Amino acid sequence: MPGWILASGGNEFSDIYAEADLAALEKRKNKNSPLLVVVTAPFPTQLQAYQLAEKYFANLGIKTIMSPILSENDLSAENISQLAQADAIYFAGGTPARLTKCFVDTTAEIAIRKALENDAVIMGSSAGAMLFGSKVVMPGGNEIGRGLDLLENQIVLAHFGGTWPGWIKGFQNQGFHFLGLAEGASVLTPVTSSSKPLKFGKVFRPETNI
């Protein structure tokens, strides 16, 4: 599966992410294509979240459009087609369960994978980044469910403070790896290439801090 994934640590739409966001968007096939912003997660402030995104990306010279997918009830053929055809998609942070319910094991997941097959750039912050892992697990170790597994066999912890809790060992014993992203940190990785991911800010692994 071609394409690129950018996972960020939270508190998005801030200048601290400008370098990483622009690096990811430079990977678009069409450098003039708009960024599709998905605000399913930040309920009930979805419109406000999009407005923040619109202003932030406009300052970076990037046009945006707001995805109409605000919940699992919005998976119409038209909205799914828009998702599948996007060159770049951004998943805002918020409530992780809203994302798993809407985008895992649904037509929306199929659309995201189709977009990646067409070399799309998929970006996400906080809950949006957590969605990209194999599982979505909260800081206390409570598992919400399966993620999109775009970051294969990985579990993403956003807003990471640098100290690994003991509960991660249970998941490590199952073969999962952890990616800790501090606020202001991002990892940009190609989906299929063996190239080393690009890191921005404080990025952590339990084995070694990178």
Summarize the helix and strand pattern as letters: EHEHEHEHHEHEEEHEEEE
Biggest pleated-sheet summary: 7 strands, mixed
CATH class: Alpha Beta
Q: Flag low-confidence runs.
A: none
| Strand adjacency order, main sheet | 3-2-4-5-1-10-11
What name does the CATH topology carry?
Rossmann fold
Rounded Rg: 16 Å
Oligomer: single chain
What is the structural class? alpha/beta
Average pLDDT metric: 95
Helix content: 25-40%
Total beta strands: 12
Kindly, what is the distance between the CA atoms of the first and last residues, rounded to a whole number of angstroms?
25 Å
Whole-number tally of structural domains = 1
CATH 4th-level superfamily: Class I glutamine amidotransferase (GATase) domain
SS summary, helix count: 7
Descriptive labels:
210 residues, alpha/beta, Rossmann fold, 3-stranded mixed β-sheet, 12 strands
Any overview of this molecule?
It is a single chain. With 210 residues, the protein is of the alpha/beta class. 28% of the residues lie in helices and 22% in strands. The protein has helices at residues 18-25, 46-59, 77-85, 96-103, 107-117, 127-130, 168-172; strands spanning 4-8, 35-38, 64-66, 88-91, 121-125, 135-137, 143-146, 154-157, 177-181, 186-190, 198-200, 203-204. α3 runs parallel beside α5. The two termini are 25 Å apart.
Task: Summarize this entry quickly.
The protein has seven helices and twelve strands. The chain is α/β, with parallel strands linked by helices.
Record the SSE blueprint.
Elements: E1 4-8, H1 18-25, E2 35-38, H2 46-59, E3 64-66, H3 77-85, E4 88-91, H4 96-103, H5 107-117, E5 121-125, H6 127-130, E6 135-137, E7 143-146, E8 154-157, H7 168-172, E9 177-181, E10 186-190, E11 198-200, E12 203-204
Parallel strand pairs: 1-5, 2-3, 2-4, 4-5, 8-9
Antiparallel strand pairs: 1-10, 6-7, 9-12, 10-11
